Amino acid sequence: MIKRLFILVGIPVLVGLTLSSFEPLMAQSDEAMMVAQEERKQRFKASSASMKALYREYLPAEDYQAIKAEATVLVKWAIDMPEAFPFGSDSINDEAKPEIWTDFEGFKSAAKAFETASLDLQKAAEQNDISLVKTALGNVGASCKACHQKYRKK
Ligand code: HEC
Fold first, then answer.
1. Which domain holds residue 74?
2. CB under 6 Å to ligand 1: residues?
3. What is the number of domains present in the chain?
4. In CATH, what number is assigned to the domain containing residue 107?
5. Between 153 and which of 31, 64, 73, 95 could a Cys-Cys bridge form, CB atoms 3.0 to 4.6 Å apart?
6. pLDDT tens digits along 120-140
7. What sign results for the dihedral spanned by CA atoms 49, 51, 54, 60?
8. Does position 28 have pLDDT exceeding 80, yes or no?
């Protein structure tokens, strides 16, 4: 009788405990994904602001110090970018295409192309050479676009 009671009461309680102890874990990982999405969006917005400042202010002013500083920030972002896309951090409210994770090597090389272009911009600024800066900046913009065409929902 006691044994039956355990089966009747104990098992549902055990199952219930197990399920409820998983709940915070699930919630946490959902939250981690949302944090990842939010953080990368902020950094993308910042990089967009960098590009505007570069084209509208620093390039016309030939402000090589400022160009170099922005380029350094872009290089850092390019290096961090793959980690800003943890597996499972896509959602319907997000512009990240599933191809990022089915072709993560391709995504990483698109980020690498952005890194290389940003490094070239940094070097061009160090040489105080406006025509090199112009070309390098064009290449940075092209690397943004190339990745968006493949990996960002429109
Ligand atoms: C290696 C790929 C890659 C590169 C390089 C890249 N992007 Fe993106 N970008 C993305 C993806 C993917 C998203 C969608 C992210 C999301 O919704 O979570 C995005 C989103 C954005 C957004 C929208 C952010 C928001 O508010 O939702 C902006 C703005 C942006 N990128 C600008 C840029 C600029 C400017 C550059 C170059 C300086 C750049 N990106 C380079 C892949 C890239």
1. 2-151
2. 37, 40-41, 44-45, 47-48, 51, 74, 81, 94-96, 107, 110-111, 114, 140, 143-144, 147-148, 151-152
3. 1
4. 1.20.120.10
5. 95
6. 999 999 999 999 999 999 999
7. negative
8. no
